[in-house]
Every structure is written in C-alpha cells, then in structure tokens.
Write a structure and sequence with these properties.
By secondary structure, this protein is an alpha/beta fold. 37% of the residues lie in helices and 18% in strands. The chain has helices at 2-22, 25-34, 38-50, 72-85, 106-115, 135-140, 148-157, 162-167, 171-179, 206-217, 239-257, 301-308, 327-357, 362-374, 389-400, 445-452; strands at 56-60, 62-63, 66-68, 91-96, 195-198, 203-205, 219-222, 225-233, 260-266, 274-275, 293-294, 312-316, 404-411, 419-424, 430-435, 456-457, 461-465, 486-492, 495-501, 514-519. Helix 11 links the parallel strand 8 (225-233) and strand 9 (260-266). Helix 10 (206-217) packs across helix 11 (239-257) and helix 13 (327-357) runs antiparallel to helix 15. The protein is globular, with a radius of gyration of 26 Å.
C-alpha cells in the first residue's frame, strides 16, 4: 500500500512538472495576475481528462422523508420566533445579480435578425391563438410592461411615436430601441436594472423590489435605528452604473420605510475562473497566445459569500420578485425559514457545547443523536452502534459542527431546475442534496427513475448559518465537493473547446453543509427567464 501511494504522488509530481515545462514565462505572469496557481490549473485539466462522477441518487426527498411541511400553527410560531430573535443576529441578504439580461430577449433578437431591412407581413400581429411566449404577444401586450413609458419617451426624444410605429408595423425600430444603446439598452444591462413592475405612480426595477423586501427580514438593530443589509454580486462592467442607480434610490426608500440601508457589492474573482482546454484536453490558447480562462459559474460565488463573514445570510435570485400585492406570503415564509434556522441552531449550539466538554452519559448521547438524525437530517450509519462513547461523541461533534442552510422547496409543476434528493457520496455517506439534471446518468434506468420521481424542485430560496457555536465564521471552502463540477463544449474564434464550471453555489459548493429542506408555497417562486414572463399575473400589480 505504501509503495502504491508513493507512485501516485510521483505521477502527480510528473504531471505538474509537465505542465510547468509547457508554460511560458508569459503564461506564468498571466496566472500570477489572476491569482491562479499552477496546482489549480493542473487539477482542472485532470478533471477534463477524468470527467466528473454522476450523482448517486438514493431516493427523492419528499414530505416526511427529507422535506418538512409545517402546519399553519407551526408557521405562525416560527414567524413569531423570527421576529423575537432576529435582533440578536447579524443578518444579510445576498443577491447574485451579475447575469446580463440578454437571454431574456432571445426571441426579440431573433426577430430583429429575421426582419431587419425587410417588410413585416401586415397580418403579423393579427394571428389567432397567439402563444404566451411568442414575439407577437410581446408586441400586442407591450403597453403592459413596466418599461413601456420609458420606451415610449425614449422614442419620442428621437421624434418617433410608438403608437405610429406599431400601426405602421415598424416593429424592428421598437425592438432596437428597447435593446440597443441608442434606446433603453435593455439587451446589455443586468436584470437588476430592468423595470419589472408597474405601479400607479411609478415603476420599479428588479433591484428595487429587493430593497423593499430587505426591510422585512434582513435587518440589524443599532443605536441609530434599524439597518437593512444587502449584498449584490455584480459584473465588473456594470458595477459603476449599479452603484450609481442604488445611490439614487436609497434616499427614496429610506424615507418611505423609515430605515437605513447598508449595501455592499462584489464581483466574481478572477482567481475563480477556470482554464479552457481544446478537444485533446490541452490548454486552449487565444489568438494572441495567452491562455483562455472562463468564468467558473455561480459556484464561484461561494468565495464572495465566504468573504462576507456574516452570521445569517438569506440568498435569493435577482429575478425572483413580485409586486407589493403578493409580497406578504414571501415575507411570511422568509421568516419561517429564518425562524426555523434560529430554533435549530440554538439547540445545535447547546448540544455542541456539551459534546465539546465531553463526559456525557449514554442517554445524553442518544438524545443528541436523535436530534441530529430527526431535526438536522444527518444520516446515522449502522456502524455508529459499534462505537464506544468517545467515538460517538467525536462522530456527532464532527457532523453537527458545520455550516447549516434551510432551503425552501416548491412542488414540482414542470419548472426546470435542480431537485432535492437523498444521495450517496464516494465515502458511502448519505445526505440531502440539491441535484441538477446534468449531474444524473440518465442512461441508468434506476437513477433516472429516482430522478423522475421527485415531487419538489429548488427555487433558490435559502437562509444560511455560517458561524460555529464559538461565534467564529466557518471557512466555507472546507465544505465544497469538488467532484460535482460540470464540463460543457463551447467554441471561440471558430475553434471547439471544453469549459469547466465549478460546483454550483447551492449544489456542490454547499454539499457538506447541514442541509434541511422545507416546503414553501409556489407563489414564492416567480422567476423571469424571458421578457414575456413579466406579463404573467404574478408580475402585474393590477
């Protein structure tokens, strides 16, 4: 065994030396400027060569078997607990907001490409049975969008009347004014800076709805009053306009809600970019000879989260918001998730202090093990019964002294997205995980059957506890499952390449956390994937 291990280390050293010898001084300077190590690049190249293992699904998480469903009475109790205890916690709301909105307008871009410089058929907007997601419905319902008045005014500044353009079928001009720089530039802005909801007196950007939400559940108490804390992850190119927009909005909402805001920002770190390779798994080079690195996906944001050093963090996507008339349910269930986190953590910390001290009686150890299994959803393997008292204490301590997250789950009604499952890892440990379709071996009939039997899916609605029982922040890097990344095929400059995405933020990046799933109402999940989604009743105020 010792000899085998030495050979493996030797081979690893040879691979690293091979990579080092293939790197030019310019390459090494590029890596240094990005704060990326050769070890990091070598590991990623090896991952391209070996691929990633599929998830091993044991069973879907369902109500009573991995997903908790609270009664109306329990919901009210947890809301009350959140309201009573929140002043003792440092709470922040974390919103990934770096994604560009261009994908929202895919159909409109295609329409412009097809009809630019061409005559549009007279009956284009008179078709019967117009589909909801169609380009025809976009134009027929254009006045229902929150950005309509801005678009109308922008066209007027250039001497164009939107109603005249509509009647004359000059729809390409309208579309271009919506998307391009001379107009609203919506095709190049992040979703956060798009008008989502129309109200009687004004319209709100997506980020404004998050400012409003934050006043209800991500606040801290100070001598100077209540402060709502938010953190946005933003792309570098949009950082300045993002900050400028927020600075203009803050005074408005501080006056309206009698609260102050503490808003911070971060960009995805260049050190989390991943190297691209050619189809032979050799480093892909740009036309200038430099190595090509690509963003590592939203899993890279675990580093941004780790840097915040906040005790309790709510996470919600930028496009999952609703107008005021529908916010009450969202508020209630954010407080339910937070209240349940407080309740579990308070008991967890009490038990961890006892475990840390040691010298527990058997009935005390059994009580803690029952809590770990039934409340923290920690699998207690059969071999645990063979442990002596010290071994049981060590096992429970290691399993309970981890960051914890409470994840909202909604009933599966056909929406795409990851789902909640019991999975088995390479160490034969069973745990609750959020698993994406790309992580499943769909050719394996048993695995596919488990995958298809899921009753719920992940709406990205979670609250995280990132401090240990001593009041120290966990290093979240210690809880990533690096075997849950993803490889995709792309192209650049006409050449095929392979790209690597890091373990997803709410998938592999949090795989070794204490994971607890709670059913939340479907009304709390209202994503905007295409621009026409803003026409849905959930995004209309009236």
């Amino acid at each position: 065994m010792f000899f085998k291990i030495k050979i493996n280390f030797y081979l690893c050293d040879v691979q690293i030396q091979t990579l080092m010898s293939a790197l030019t001084n310019k390459d090494k300077q590029q890596l240094e400027s990005l704060n990326i190590s050769t070890d990091q690049v070598e590991r990623q190249i090896n991952q391209f060569k070996t691929g990633f293992p599929y998830s091993d699904l044991v069973a879907p998480a369902t109500i009573g078997n991995g997903i908790i469903k609270f009664s109306d009475t329990e919901v009210q109790e947890l809301i009350k607990q959140f309201e009573e205890d929140k002043e003792y916690y440092d709470i922040l709301k974390f919103i990934p907001a770096s994604g560009a909105a261009s994908r929202m307008f895919k159909n409109i871009y295609s329409f412009v490409e097809e009809y630019k410089g061409k005559e549009i058929p007279e009956d284009f907007l008179k078709k019967e049975n117009v589909k909801f997601d169609s380009i025809e419905n976009f134009f027929l319902s254009i006045s229902d969008f929150a950005f309509y008045d801005d678009l109308k005014n922008k066209l007027a500044e250039c001497g164009k009347d939107i109603e005249t353009l509509m009647s004359e079928n000059r729809l390409v001009e309208i579309a271009e004014f919506l998307l391009e720089n001379e107009g609203l530039c919506y095709g190049k802005l992040p979703k956060a800076l798009l008008k989502f909801h129309k109200y009687k007196e004004s319209s709100r950007l997506a980020l404004e709805e998050h400012l409003v939400e934050a006043t209800q559940y991500s606040t801290i108490y100070t001598e100077d009053g209540e402060i709502a804390q938010l953190h946005f992850t933003v792309s570098q190119e949009h950082l300045d306009i993002f900050k400028k927009t927020v600075e203009e909005l803050i005074p408005v909402y501080e006056r309206e809600y009698g609260i102050r805001y503490d808003i911070s920002y971060s960009v995805q770190k260049p050190s989390t970019d991943t190297i691209a390779v050619d189809m032979n798994n050799e480093p892909f080079r740009n036309n200038d000879g430099s190595l090509l690195f690509r963003p590592g996906g939203h899993g890279a944001l675990i580093q941004n989260l780790n840097d915040l050093k906040k005790e309790v963090i709510f996470i919600k996507n930028i496009d999952n918001v609703v107008p005021d008339r529908l916010k009450s349910t969202t508020y209630d269930y954010k407080k339910v998730l937070g209240g349940y986190l407080f309740r579990l953590q308070q008991q967890q910390f009490e038990y961890l202090n006892l475990l840390d001290e040691g010298c527990l009686a058997n009935d005390e150890i059994d009580e803690i093990a029952k809590f770990a299994k039934e409340k923290l959803m920690i699998d207690i393997p059969n071999f645990y019964k063979t442990y002596n008292e010290i071994e049981k204490i060590d096992f429970l301590y290691s399993k309970m002294n981890r960051p914890m997250r409470i994840c909202g789950m909604v009933k599966n009604e056909g929406e795409p997205g990851g789902g909640p499952y019991w999975t088995r890892n390479s160490s034969d440990e069973v745990s609750l995980q959020i698993v994406e379709s790309s992580q499943i071996d769909h050719k394996n009939e048993k695995q596919e059957a488990v995958f298809q039997s899921a009753t719920h899916f992940n709406p990205v609605d979670l609250v995280c506890a990132t401090y240990d029982f001593r009041g120290e922040p966990f290093d979240l890097n210690d809880y990533i499952d690096y075997n849950t990344g993803f490889i995709s095929q792309k192209s650049k400059d006409g050449k095929e390449l392979k790209a690597l995405e890091l373990p997803g933020l709410w998938n592999g990046a949090m795989a070794d956390w204490i994971n607890i799933f709670v059913e939340v109402p479907i009304i709390t999940f209202n994503p905007v994937k295409t621009v026409n989604d803003l026409l849905r009743d959930k995004h209309q105020e009236n």
